[in-house]
Design a protein that fits this description.
Layout (H helix, E strand, L loop, with lengths): L1 H20 L1 H12 L3 H28 L1
Helix pairs in contact: 1-2
């Protein structure tokens, strides 16, 4: 559970950095996202999920081998 909470905390830090550092650009990005079709957002989300899972599998494979 401690590891899970650390991971959640790190995700929140990484997600918050763009808003803290570049609030104007994040507002522009939100407007851009608002104009996208739902299907486009689903594809983008699916690609992010696939990329994240790939990184996790690769990291576990590399770290597990050592």
């Amino acid at each position: 559970m401690e590891y899970f909470l650390c991971v959640i905390g790190m995700v929140m830090v990484v997600e918050g950095l763009p808003y803290f550092g570049f609030p104007e650009k994040m507002k522009e990005l939100m407007k851009f996202i608002q104009d996208q079709e739902n299907s486009t957002l689903r594809v983008m989300g699916g690609m992010m999920i696939a990329a994240g899972l790939s990184i996790l599998v690769l990291a576990r494979w590399i770290l597990g081998a050592s």
